[in-house]
Amino acid sequence: MDLAQAHSRSHFSLVREAPGQQAPVDFCIPCNPYFPTPEIFDTLGGNLEAILKYYPSDSETIAAELSATLGLNPRTVVMGNGSTELITWIDHLLVRESLAIPIPTFGRWTDQPLETGKRVDMYPLLESRNFTLDVDDYVRFIRSRGSRVAVICNPNNPDGGYLPRHEVVRLLDRLIDLDLVIVDESFGDFVDAEPYPGLAGEAAVRPNVIVLRSLGKNFGLHGIRFGYLIANPALAGRIRGALPKWNLNSFAEVVVFMLKEHLADYRDSLRRLAQDRHIMLQQLGAMPGLTVFASQGNFLLVKLPDGHDGVQLRDHLLERHNVHVRECGNKLGTTSQFLRLVVRPSPDVRRLLLGMTHYLYAGTPLETPVIGLHHRRVALASGGPA
């Protein structure tokens, strides 16, 4: 199987290529493994005929329900068919000449404006500084380039780097004269570094700020394609007016109207995921030569030891261990030596670690000790004997 040119291949394409085989354990697509609950899936399954048969309500009706659930002013909220649709319309409507973005980052923030002829000013986040964003240096870069729009992803994708809330507010204050500042909080619900880190309240009252959030990423429902943004009423209204009236599907409507009764389950899923992230960080960090970057997302960025290529490891994991990972060679600002690994429960992580160990250390004195270390750490994580 030649995967050398693959991007993030879909779950469905992988299943089609191996009919009758069990679906791969997915460390590639950043889903929440604990949400939705089986109860939610049962409800969706029980309503499948109606969901597929009937038109949804218009997007404003669905957005009003989401706003009520999240405690937001509906005049400041716009829902889209995934965050990518919102990024597309932000670019068409609000980006006139140039956009600054730290890299590496989510690819649509560089690709979309380039596709429409804009200048993209790429600010390199340095591996030597753990891909940390320096607010003052980023502002200097924006001024030197004359960028009119600035973007940050917080937490950032693919490294999970997080800028504290007060630092983001300071950035917004420094860039009050720009046409637009966008804070992409698509993975914001996974942050546990500080309470209530989001900037929805700031976006609702500032003249030039948009906050973007992804329901698919947070809720583990990428296939439904729903996201939303928050901006002041005038800015939100301009974007809302450009969107199709029925840009959301019936699955999105049913899920949004179910959220109120499942918020406690959702919050519990975030706590469990944060615990898994901590354990997975420790396990990966114990592998000799592997660099693991601290993350506030639901994924971890790792750099392979020198002399190892992520494409070959990705193919090995899929073909030999039925594990699917994201190799980052086509992300601006990283190389194929980097992998982004989604946080998953410990039994799945053990399978990943064993596959990585067999590839990285096979035939070396490290192989057996590293495998033993995985066994001990998994036992400790589950409360068993070391």
From TrEMBL:
Top-level taxon of origin: Bacteria
GO molecular function: pyridoxal phosphate binding; transaminase activity
InterPro entries: Aminotransferase_I/II_large, PyrdxlP-dep_Trfase, PyrdxlP-dep_Trfase_major, PyrdxlP-dep_Trfase_small
Keyword Transferase: yes
Domain Aminotransferase class I/classII large span(s) in chain numbering: 55-349
Keywords (A to Z) from UniProt: Aminotransferase, Transferase
Name assigned to this protein: Histidinol-phosphate/aromatic aminotransferase/cobyric acid decarboxylase-like protein
Taxonomic lineage of the native organism: Bacteria, Bacillati, Actinomycetota, Actinomycetes, Streptosporangiales
